């Protein structure tokens, strides 16, 4: 069987967009509908401009009604029909939802939760990634599909499973977890040391004594929990790579992917990213929350970064309402359009939906779709068609790159370890801090790449570390090299606290960064509910008039850094809260607390100014809700807000969406979108 690296074809997605332009479509589940409907589906897809659909994600029971008894005739017909209508197919292995017979014949394929309850069939995701029988059954159907359709002209892409994010605590998972631990640690003594098992008498005599972190009487060992998360991500990834390699081995040459779920806590996407040929993601922002547009921009920046800047696929989103929230708000036509254009702005070359035709039955009968229950004579279908038309106008954008000079560190093990119970405060959430810092740059129209700790930072003028709990030597070395090269570095609180096994690094903190930051600390403390005032030093000429700290503070001592603000009262009174340290070529700021928005923005502005980083437009701060990002030749302006805003253009431009010529300041009504190119670039 091919090795994973040999099995990758990272350039193959661009071959598709070269032929089709920006891909547009969605999940298509024809197995849920009688054949008479298929013809109408194909005709309406053509009307809407659909050029790519994902077929078969949940069709295992239809493809293999009984063990080993395959029925491909219906799928042959569907693929031929789609091909006859010029619609390309992303063919899925149906392995996210095994048929009931698999669990009946092999109960060990069903997942077990932390309480020891084996979950039943009747929904979906009823598999344990550890199960040998499940994996073999999944490989068999994936192989059968690939052998039959590897050369089918409709099939342009393969899609393995769906939204990997299952966790299992059963006996087979326990056995696999032990093997994974043996591989990682070699001997039980090394594991005992790494996990610190002398605490609470947890010392193991043998790997066989270890179980997954099942329901326990009290708090779990954080190192055990961290490793189980690593193992779970790895076990899911193995399910993906096994099927991917089987598809390749059957002769398929199309790109192979699976749909990620943004900042999903069960999959370490830095580990996964190298295994897919094209990054794909499902995005369901909650537009009831005020920060949804910048939060989803962050996810989109992550997706672009996972693919090292290559175009990615928005595999699923909703045209209007979802049905799985307790209360589901619809999307306006403008909102649906903005969500689609935003993905393209931030690097997507495919905009797809869940799903093509709204389900009449099943759990998702109220989830919106491109073609609703009421049919084609609807506003929702008009919206679908309008998005298709917009995307056709954006063909020149396909393949373009977003160039970012700001890097933002994010890492799954750090996230996992920082949020284990038993810490100074459960109110500090790493992702919320990352969102907050990223939002400040989004408001300035400044492009950001996410990077994994330890990555070479030489392409970046500014490096942001909102909260990276685990900092190992490679990460510290890369941060130091960036600052010494002249970059601005800004590090937030509760960073560099622990080693890779979640053990606290001893000595003044952050142990591996304190020389670089010129500041060191000795305790992390929860702050009172009322914000703690900070005293801004007069020497901080750009500093805000007032500043506060909330959630978490650190008792710091300046060891060479300038103190820009100190705690004014409380347990940390007098201690530095914000510092700045000039290093060889660059500058390193440290925030020893979660500081108020103005203070954070000012530090970030100082850092960006020092590094000469500017936004996509000539405005330092964009109007509320307005997003601006340059992708290749195109400047995207999107107004997600409730009010109109004006944006200053860098020169005369033509709008690809409306064909209008614009210059100077443009007025963006709420919901408005422009994709501007220089006139000579047409
Ligand atoms: C995704 C899933 C789809 C559908 C959709 C509804 O998580 O992949 O199959 O369930 O959500 O929002």
What keyword list fits this structure?
19 helices, disordered N terminus, binds beta-D-galactopyranose
Structure in a nutshell:
The protein contains 19 helices and 27 strands. It is α/β, with parallel strands linked by helices.
Describe the structure.
- With 682 residues, the protein is of the alpha/beta class.
- Helices cover 32% and strands 20% of the residues.
- It is built from 19 helices and 27 strands.
- The strands form 4 sheets. Strands 10, 11, 12, 13, 14, 15, 16, 17, 18, 19 and 20 form an 11-stranded mixed beta sheet that branches.
- A hairpin with a 2-residue loop joins strand 21 and strand 22.
- The two termini are 46 Å apart.
- The N terminus is likely disordered.
- Beta-D-galactopyranose (GAL) binds next to loops.
Rounded mean pLDDT is 97
Q: Structural class, from helix and strand content?
A: alpha/beta
Overall body shape: globular
Please mark out the parts with pLDDT under 50 across 5 or more consecutive residues, or reply none.
Answer: 1-5
- Helical fraction equals 25-40%
Bound molecules: beta-D-galactopyranose
